[in-house]
Amino acid sequence: MRIDFDPEALGSTPFYKLLTSVVVPRPIAWVSTISRDHLSANLAPHSFFTVAAVAPPIVQFTSVGRKDSLRNVEDTGEFVVNLAPEGLFEQVNATATDFPHGVSEFEAVGVAQEASARVKPPRVAGSPVALECVVHSTMGLGNSTVVFGRVVHAAIDDAVMVDGHAEITRLRPLSRLGKNEWGTVGDVLDLARIRYADWEGQGPEKV
């Protein structure tokens, strides 16, 4: 038996909580930006995040409401997506605090930063991956704005690389679940795609 939910009847906030409890796990874009005057660096986690395109390489994150990340992106046209690692769990969560406009989360939370190679916003020094981006476009959807960024530089810690591949068990990325729940890397399943030419007798058993 299934339970039916009508988004309009339930209301936006209750349905948002339901939606984020079933669209799981969600990777986290720990987005660093800088103010137009380059005096204040902002850092905030966004769990509506994914790859949007391959050639050119474009990633996307969604700002629910108008937050400093979005304002800075619109003002400067640049941002950095830092991987949110398990070892910085408390700092990632703390940067989601609604600090007043102009307060740098880097400074307030005590997150070390380093200069980026191609863009003005700083990178998180303790993150194993930083994707430096310039804004490709933005799209308003209801109370949210989707930001598309073209990746112009990637900086990856060599400690997480194995044979040219970023190893998941070394990256140890956090993910967001429902309520106040967070996910870490559990069992990793390794299964190659099946080519159609090899499909006969190779498909999963029907249930």
TrEMBL record:
Highest rank taxon of the organism: Bacteria
Entry cofactors: FMN
Q: Which SUPFAM superfamilies match?
A: FMN-binding split barrel (SSF50475)
* Keywords recorded for this protein, A-Z: Flavoprotein, FMN
Q: Does the keyword Transferase apply?
A: no
- Pfam families referenced in this protein's UniProt entry, alphabetically: Flavin_Reduct (PF01613)
Q: Name one GO molecular function term.
A: oxidoreductase activity, acting on the CH-NH group of donors, NAD or NADP as acceptor
Quote the InterPro entries the UniProt record gives. Answer: Flavin_Rdtase-like_dom (IPR002563), Split_barrel_FMN-bd (IPR012349)
Domain Flavin reductase like, first and last residues per copy: 21-166
Stated family: Belongs to the flavoredoxin family.
Name of the protein this chain belongs to: NADH-FMN oxidoreductase RutF, flavin reductase (DIM6/NTAB) family
Organism of this sequence: Streptomyces melanosporofaciens
